[in-house]
Amino acid sequence: MPKYDILEFFESCRTNQNAVIPFKQALDDADHYFGLKTKTALLDFIGNDGLEELEFINSKPWENNKDTTRVIWVDAYEFKSMCKLGYIAFMHNELTIKWLIKSFHLSENTSNAFAIALQKAGFRGGIR
């Protein structure tokens, strides 16, 4: 079960971009894998339904959290965009009231994207 309301995250991406901070690696990967070259392009993409067929993966504590007094949770999702299977992980910092995009890249399951699409389309035969 997700720790955050993803619709609130989408709304911030759409209407309050100062409240959303992508990590540098997430921004670099968004450019490399999806052609989203700026923070504005990335947040517009997210906020305007660019994450198609969104599927929740998991929530887990942020591994690099330096604050030992509280847990910061990270929600991770897979999505599709232009025949690519992507991965996004984000969190919300209650102290700064900011959303943080930890990761935005191709999914590790990307090699299975074609098989997943065939399965969802109802294809049951084997590929020879």
Care to describe what's here?
- The chain has 128 residues and is of the alpha+beta class.
- It has one domain: 2-Layer Sandwich (YaeB-like fold), CATH 3.30.2310.
- The protein contains 4 helices and 5 strands, in the order αβααββββα.
- It has helices at 6-15, 24-34, 39-47, 113-120, and strands at residues 20-22, 52-61, 73-81, 84-93, 98-106.
- Strands 1-5-4-3-2 form a 5-stranded mixed β-sheet.
- The longest helix has 11 residues, at 24-34.
- The radius of gyration is 16 Å and the shape is globular.
- The N and C termini lie far apart (38 Å).
- The model has no long low-confidence stretch (mean pLDDT 90).
Summarize it.
The chain has 4 helices and 5 strands. By secondary structure, it is α+β, with helices and mostly antiparallel strands.
Write the layout of secondary structure elements.
Blueprint: H1 6-15, E1 20-22, H2 24-34, H3 39-47, E2 52-61, E3 73-81, E4 84-93, E5 98-106, H4 113-120
Parallel strand pairs: 1-5
Antiparallel strand pairs: 2-3, 3-4, 4-5
